[in-house]
Amino acid sequence: MKKIAITIILIITAIQVKCQSIGDFRSISDGGWNNSSIWQIFTGSSWEATSQNPALQYTNIYVYHNVILATNIELKANLIIENGSVSINGNTLKIINNLQINNGQLIGGENSTLEINAASNIVELPQITLDNLTINSAQGIIVGGDLTINNELNLQNGILNLGENNLILTANANIKGNFDKNTMISAGNNSIIRKYTNNSNSYFFPIGSTSINNRYAPVEFKFNSGTFNLASFIEVSVSNMKQLDVSLNTTSYIKRFWNINSFGISNYYCDLDFQYSDEDIIGSENEIICMEVKNGDFTKGKYADPSTNKMSISTTEFGQYTGSSTNWVLGCELTKFEATEENAFVSLNWITASESDTKQFEIERSIDAVNFEQIGIVSAAGNSNELNYYSFNDENFSNHSIYYYRLKTIDNNGSISISNTIKINIKKSQSLPTTIFDKSNNQIIVNNDSELNHPCLIQIIGFDGKIVSANEFELTEGANKLVIDANLIENGIYIVSIKDNSQFSSTKLLIY
Questions:
Q1: CA–CA dist 419, 246 (Å, integer)
Q2: Which of 124, 132, 182 is nearest to 154 (CA)?
Q3: CA proximity to 119, closest of 162, 76, 159, 153
Q4: Which of 1, 240, 257, 279 has the maximal Cβ count within 10 Å?
Q5: How confident is the model at residue 17 (pLDDT cuts 50, 70, 90)?
Q6: Among 224, 174, 219, which Cα is nearest to 200's?
Q7: pLDDT tens readout for residues 40-96
Q8: How far apart (Å, rounded) are the C-alpha atoms in residues 321 and 312?
Q9: What DSSP string runs through 185-226?
């Protein structure tokens, strides 16, 4: 028989002394919200036992313990969660006044609904999973962890600011509301919106950014066809900057780009509609065309419509999207510029269709797409109306996974023009995670090899698209054995995904 050692730790929590008002409530023990024995009321000089329901009051409710809702509750008072927690527990919690979460937690769960109608303060939500979330607060909401919605996100008023966190919409989830620059989802600084989907529908994301005022930049997906698996999803994020591959010589462009990825979707054809703000326009709006960028190559869509601030493109492979004119005049007509990885070097190849008084090409390289260094010079044809083929091998690079290259064309008269920037990912050996379900210990064991020390996120995803477990780990160089508790995960088939800042891998898992 196994011996089980049980350690009992007594934690004494001191209830902080605050400036109280008559009628304030505070919790004195764990329990159900409607259990009056867990509450005290402030009478003006002392805290006393009460039979009143704090949900009916208009003052402050301080939670220092773990309180569970048993019914739907509409709070007219300010709810301040100090060191304890409030579990919605499959009910509806409607905040009429203010919600403040200090060192405590707000816990959602299946069938849980949260309605925020904060009167004056900005609500900061922790990582939470909800069936429904309604936001009707001009001050907005900031999330401090990933927010997962299983059914409906209703944006009536105010901005949902993701910060550096993610919004996860499961397969049955949708977004509704009246959207504009003051009622949207702010997704920047490495945050994404992920929508799980298993069919060819249309999906609208009221995305934008607040880093430079409020700029509304929504995108709509219209799938005409595609093959979807049970764990497939699309992801979108937006950046307040010029897309890196747009040439420095471009006179008109949108100072914004959208990054779109997908997983588990194949053979698709999708129409994409983008909206931009007037503040995003540099140069002449009438010259701007919607552009899809993949590995430095541009595909043209439709011209921007100045009357609606919209532009569109159709695609069979997602990438980055922006708006730009096509007057990228080099000292020659460059028809192709690409980078490919060979065994021990990067091979750069480019083609010109015509040249006029060109002297040479200077090849420049960067690891951040901002600071470039010259790594070589290739003589140009000079004057030509024929195709000219050029190549250069970069054999002197260090241990970085991403490199950026561009060409600087020098004419005999001294004029300089710079090409688009192209990017190449240097492949590193990455083994698909080996996942084992240890039935005797009810654990999920993930074995993964890593070449670097870096953080990663491991998610256990059901075939309905719901995330049943999410854990962050610090990978170390070499072999890693990562253990996840499976006690709360039901039997079935799941997808185990490992994701870091630049890589993604997944494998199946059977729990029985």
A1: 9
A2: 132
A3: 76
A4: 257
A5: very low
A6: 224
A7: 999 999 999 999 888 777 789 999 999 999 999 999 889 999 999 999 999 999 998
A8: 10
A9: EE--TT--EEEE-SS--EEEE-EEE-SSS-EE--EEEEEEEE
Using an 8 Å Cβ cutoff, are 253 and 226 in contact? Answer: no
Amino acid at 380: A
Classify burial at 431, counting beta carbons within 10 Å of its beta carbon; exposed 0-12, middle 13-18, buried 19 or more: exposed
Say whether 286 sits in a helix, a strand or coil: helix
Question: Residue 145's beta-bridge partner residues?
Answer: none
Enter the tokens of residue 321: 């999207």
Q: How many CB atoms lie within 10 A of CB 178?
A: 9
Structure tokens of 20?
A: 């109280």
Read off the pLDDT of residues 200-217 as tens digits, 9 standing for 90 and up: 899 999 999 887 788 999
C-alpha to C-alpha distance for 423 and 502, rounded to whole angstroms: 14
Q: Record the tokens describing residue 41, joined without a space.
A: 């009321």
Length of the chain in terms of residues written: 512
Q: Which residues contact 307 (CB under 8 A, 6 or more apart)?
A: none
The mean per-residue pLDDT over the stretch 427-450 comes to: 68
3-state SS of the chain: helix, strand, coil percent to 5? 0, 55, 45
Encoding tokens for residue 131?
A: 């069936």
Which three-class secondary structure state does DSSP give residue 431? coil
Place of tokens 């990228």: 328
